[in-house]
Amino acid sequence: MGVGRPPKRFQIQGRRRKALVPRPYSPDLNPIEQAFAKIKHWMRAAQKRTIDDTWRHIGHLVATIEPDECSSYFN
Hints:
Elements: H1 8-14, H2 31-46, H3 51-64, H4 67-72
Helix pairs in contact: 2-3
């Protein structure tokens, strides 16, 4: 640590404040990651080779995701 100012956590504690530390990021806790993983899996399986085919296929895949499935990502 050396000479100088104390670490931030001690400065905060000295003022009777609470440091809010964000939780570590986890894709498992982010519902949109589940949908993206599914779409990426389908895209790899389709192996589209042109940009136009890729965009058409993405449009098709997004249309196949039902509203009930979307709501299950949040439950």
